[in-house]
Amino acid sequence: MDWPHLVAFNATLLAALVSPGPAMLVALRATLLGGRAQGITTGFGLAIMAALWTGMALLGLDVIFALFPWAYTTAKVVGATYLIWLAIKMWRTAHQTLETVGDVVSRNRAFMAGFYANVANPKSMLFAASVLVVIFPPDMTLGNKLFIVLNQIVVEIVAYTAFAIALSTPPARAGYLALKPVLDRCAALILGVLGLRLMLTK
């Protein structure tokens, strides 16, 4: 493994981070509802679980899923169910005030919200596996694999922290509050569709 491999991986990772998906929606809502600290803490949870999926891909979990399709199906159904539950909850609270929804949660709850959001998508592990196969040589040492995982944690934490700082400004929060019912229901629809797509696609 050399630096061009790592640069290519980080570029792909950043492109995936900014694309619309469950992780981005969870990070966005955490920041706009609870502020900068909550958004950053949620980002930590997202980053840790995403890096764990990459670590599992490096250790060959994708091969296990291929050998035992029921294991992947189980993980996929559980993840899809969580995303659909999250979508229903978001839809039902769209018209509630921040005080009713609970705009600020504990650091532990914020971290776990991010962590579970990425647990809910086993396809991110398969994505990581495909990216790793394309970018990195097959004969990497255990030390190189550990470095890739730690690198991903750092890159994602930096990205989510920058994201939270940019969106935690008073104008951004005021704009969200003004459009909260519409934005929450749009986000709920997207999460619901992603959950159904995860459950129904092979």
Would you write up a description of this structure?
The chain has one domain (3-200). It has helices spanning 3-18, 22-34, 36-58, 61-67, 69-92, 98-101, 107-119, 123-135, 142-167, 170-178, 180-200. It has eleven helices and no strands. The protein is globular, with a radius of gyration of 17 Å. By secondary structure, the protein is mostly helical.
Structural class: mainly alpha
Strand content: under 5%
Overall average pLDDT: 79
Distance between the termini: 32 Å
Apparent shape: globular
GO cellular component, one term: plasma membrane
GO molecular function, one term: amino acid transmembrane transporter activity
Main location: membrane
Pfam family, one: LysE
Task: Outline the secondary-structure elements.
Elements: H1 3-18, H2 22-34, H3 36-58, H4 61-67, H5 69-92, H6 98-101, H7 107-119, H8 123-135, H9 142-167, H10 170-178, H11 180-200
Describe this protein with a few key phrases.
single chain, 202 residues, mainly alpha
Brief overview:
By secondary structure, the protein is mostly helical. 84% of the residues lie in helices and 0% in strands. The chain has 11 helices and no strands.
